[in-house]
Amino acid sequence: MNLKWFRVPKDIVFGDGALAYLSTLEGKKGILVTGGSSMKKYGFLDKAKKHLEEAGMEVSLFDGVEPNPSVDTIESGAKAMIKFEPDWIVAIGGGSALDAAKIMWAFYEHPNLKFEDII
Fold first, then answer.
1. Residue 105 has pLDDT above 80, yes or no
2. To which H or E segment does residue 72 belong?
């Protein structure tokens, strides 16, 4: 396996074996954040879901993250996370999904946070 890590401030796992790595995570729930179309079309979304389920997790999906995600998308994703209460937030896809998942995570961890507080 040729895994690579990039931290800002949490871990970003990428490279060969990154999807399979999901099956090694410990937790009860995981949420997948994605734009959806290409990840779904090429089967990566299903593979990621399968690996999280192999780890024993219930899996939720937040898809439809658009390029340059809107405030509405971020707020919707954060609300979905607050309702689902995931142990893991997994972004899959391009930079927009990664950026959206990071800011959704901030609002999930700090539900009283407002955009005005961080811009």
1. yes
2. helix 71-84
